[in-house]
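Figure 2 data, in text form.
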Amino acid sequence: MKRMALKMKKKFDKYWGDLNLLIAVAAIMDPRNKMKLIEFSFRALYNSLEATEHIYAVKATLYDIYQEYVDAFSHETVLRENPVEGENHCENSNLVNSNVGAKGVSSGRKKFDSFIRSVDVVESMKSELDIYIEEGVFICNENETQKFDPLDWWRANSLKYRILSRMACDILAIPITSVASEATFSAGGRLLNHIEPLLVVKL
């Protein structure tokens, strides 16, 4: 039994590694956990120095991934605010027929709306992840814990976390493993029947 347990432990360590960053980030994206679960678990698994280093590595990875989504969101915003040249030409042609006063009001309002959207986007990019982490964890009723779906929570809060909700849905949708745990951590070997090659039919 001891030899079997040691074999399974060796496979387990090889499969999961010292620190699985993706699973750690996915755990943070569950509003019931956030960074609290990482801090709690790592301090129980590692000594003080290792726990601090691993927590820092997870947080740095989390912010790096978030920054990639921020850059992508900013690029989408720029494309929305600056349509293709042909569309701009059509809009300018249509404005020629309008009076000067209406044109001035429309142009001024357009610039103001664009400014508000750009300021709003900048504020969101700077604070969404920080706000999410700093807020308290989501506490379910005892009867609802097993039925809680983090993806439903993110869909419900997508207006508040416009960028972070995209990131959370992408990460939480990744299968944690594509191999059955029974096969991965099994201590038994694969046995091949030596008679099988004789069953091949020559065409």
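Caption note: Residues 95-100, 195-203 have pLDDT under 50 and may be disordered.
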